[in-house]
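Support request, please re-run this one:
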Amino acid sequence: MTKKIFSAIVLNMFVLFVVNAQIYNSNEIQTGSLYKQQQLDSLLMLHKKVNSLQSSVAGYRIQVYFESGNYSKTKALEVKNKFEQDFFSIPAYVSFNEPYYRVRVGNFRTKIEAIGFLKQIQMAYPNAFVVKDLISFEKFDEIVDK
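Re-run finished. Output below.
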């Protein structure tokens, strides 16, 4: 009888010890996760701040025109205006990199997107090709609205 009582007391003490240890670990995890959540929030705010300072990101554009010469600037502006009339939703950019004026179009995040659009304009611009460029990325609100 004494052995049964002693065994029951030892078993109860063991069970209480295990339960108490689990409760202690549970509180520690909750406190730790709260601290980690605060760290994640501050890291996310820092990430947003850094990204807001950047006006461009690496991406792809399609070069539809480049030429040097006396009237290359005028011709580049004509090509840009014609492209914007034909594809009004895709932005076009004129740039000068000595000695060439270039017209590049689009803001594509991946090369696959750029190639897909290149196939659409290939008939109108047979000499067009995909180039890596710094692109301006859309605001998140504009992406959500689409």
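The chain has two domains: 1-53, 57-145. The beta strands are 57-67, 92-97, 100-108, 129-135.
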